[in-house]
Design a protein that fits this description.
Layout (H helix, E strand, L loop, with lengths): L1 E5 L9 E6 L2 E8 L4 H14 L13 H19 L4 E12 L2 E9 L3 E6 L2 E4 L6 H7 L5 H4 L7 E2 L12 E6 L5 E5 L1 H4 L4 H10 L3 H14 L6 E7 L21 H4 L29 H4 L6 H4 L18 E2 L4
Length: about 325
């Protein structure tokens, strides 16, 4: 796995928080202004991380379990912030049904979970946002949604508003699957084609994380950026921990839960998958893009970070502050 976070180029604080510890890989994107957003996202991740059904290596989680945990997080955020802060949250839990591994994806708000499988990138989660509702109702096109003035208004969040219910998807794990979990600081800067190109080009998850953060920063870095990448291997031959890729470059599960900041910088916007622009990868060192041509040391990714912070006010509809 790989993970990283950056406060971006326009924010004073990082209000994103995350956890990357098998079986849970999740990003929370806080809203509520100075310090309040970071508290909301941190509490959300804290509540999830203490659930017994999400303990290290467990495969027992269900959608009902997660729903109850997210309700606990919602109540906790309202209690400590007096309902002045909120957070989006999305992620994936590795579970098993009758010995068969599945990705249990969950989502509240407009942070996203993607799946790259057999060369095809798909967004598993569905944004809870005003512009997504407009697109669904045929009022605007997906392209128009990218620049719509209401594009940062979310319609569901934990800790604020009346609609806090998560959506769930249960997706069979296939050999070679690569899952991407990110805050909208990434998806707001990079289109699906650019994301696809990076995920499909770089072999090591941490290299992909670093390249995506760099690309988002080079594209403007208007928001906090948090990215998790999780790979699956040995799906048919093993169960439990064997399902997850264990690259030498991946940090340990214990390290993954420690807050740490990562510096980074890089590219574009969200459209149907089309050939990605070449400049998406231009900032990636040749040693990373083509490790076969360089020394082992050159292709080893840097150590990564973990929890942090992000966004703005809280009404029934939540407007994110993107500077």
């Amino acid at each position: 796995m790989g993970f990283g976070t950056d406060r971006g180029l326009r924010r004073e604080l990082n209000e994103d928080s995350f956890i990357a510890a098998d079986p849970l890989f999740s990003v929370a994107d806080g809203m509520g202004g100075h310090e309040a957003g970071e508290v909301a996202s941190r509490e959300c991740i804290s509540v999830l991380s203490t659930q017994s059904f999400l303990s290290a290596g467990s495969r027992e989680a269900t959608a009902s379990d997660l729903q109850q945990a997210l309700r606990q997080a919602d109540a906790r955020i309202r209690e400590i912030s007096n309902a002045r802060a909120g957070t989006t949250v999305t992620g994936v839990v590795l579970v098993e049904e009758r010995g068969v591994p599945y990705w249990l994806v969950f989502n509240v708000g407009d942070s996203r979970t993607y799946r790259l499988s057999q060369g095809k990138l798909s967004q598993v989660s569905v944004d809870h946002s005003e512009v997504q509702e407009m697109v669904d109702n045929g009022l605007i096109s997906a392209e128009e949604a990218l620049t719509h003035p209401r594009r940062h208004v979310v319609t569901r969040a934990l800790g604020a508003g009346s609609d806090t219910e998560p959506d769930f998807w249960l997706v069979p794990v296939e050999e070679g699957d690569r899952m991407l979990v990110c805050s909208d600081g990434l998806s707001g800067e990079l289109g699906d084609s650019a994301i696809h190109r990076v995920l499909g080009t770089l072999r090591h998850p941490q290299d992909a994380v670093d390249a995506l953060i760099q690309a988002a920063l080079r594209s403007g870095g208007r928001d906090n950026i948090t990215v998790l990448v999780v790979d699956a291997n040995n799906v048919s031959g093993g169960v439990g921990e064997d399902t997850l890729s264990n690259e030498e470059s991946a940090p340990s599960a214990e390290e993954n839960t420690l807050p740490r900041m990562l510096a980074a910088e890089e590219t574009p916007s969200r459209q149907p998958l089309e050939p990605a622009r070449e400049d998406v990868l231009e900032g990636i060192p040749e040693a990373v893009r083509n490790p076969a041509t360089s020394s082992p040391e050159a292709s080893t990714p840097p150590s990564a970070p973990s929890a942090a912070e992000h966004h703005t006010p809280a009404d029934p509809l939540h407007q994110e502050n993107h500077g």
